Amino acid sequence: MKILISVLFASLFFASQHVAAHGDHDYQQPRVISESVALIIAQRATTSMSRKDAGLGFGQLKESWSEVPSKDLSMYKQGKGYYVVSVLNRKEEKTVYVLISNYGEVYDANLIGEFDGIN
């Protein structure tokens, strides 16, 4: 009988924990970033791509990409739900274009500035 009561209390304990852990949670809408934040994200993304190959068509960027000043970043294109930021590396004489969602997620990057599925 003691075992049966112990099993009953244990099952009630675990059931109550499950209910408490899955209560009603407030859903927060992701925040839309500003253009200036998109520029910062693009700068950090190119720095990251200079440290590790991101698996994009151009391979790992040279270390000089981590030293691009903020004055060489600009908004190339903006549309509904996205930003495309151009990052100019004067030492390499190349520009990387970074596609960022308006919530701050980096989706893609390339050297031509055109991305499938955006206008």
Strand elements, count: 4
Question: Topology as H/E string?
Answer: HHEEEE
Q: Could you give a short account of the major beta sheet?
A: 4 strands, antiparallel
Shape descriptor: globular
Low-confidence stretches: none
Quick overview:
By secondary structure, this protein is of the alpha+beta class. 31% of the residues lie in helices and 24% in strands. The mean pLDDT is 84.
Labels describing this entry:
single chain; four-stranded antiparallel sheet; alpha+beta; 4 strands; 119 residues; globular
Folded structure, characterized:
Strands 1-2-3-4 form a four-stranded antiparallel beta sheet, covered by helices on one side. The radius of gyration is 24 Å and the shape is globular. It is built from two helices and four strands, in the order ααββββ. The chain has helices at 2-21, 35-51; strands at 73-79, 82-89, 94-101, 106-110. It has a domain at 35-110. A hairpin with a 4-residue loop joins strand 2 (82-89) and strand 3 (94-101). It is of the alpha+beta class.
Secondary structure topology:
Elements: H1 2-21, H2 35-51, E1 73-79, E2 82-89, E3 94-101, E4 106-110
Antiparallel strand pairs: 1-2, 2-3, 3-4
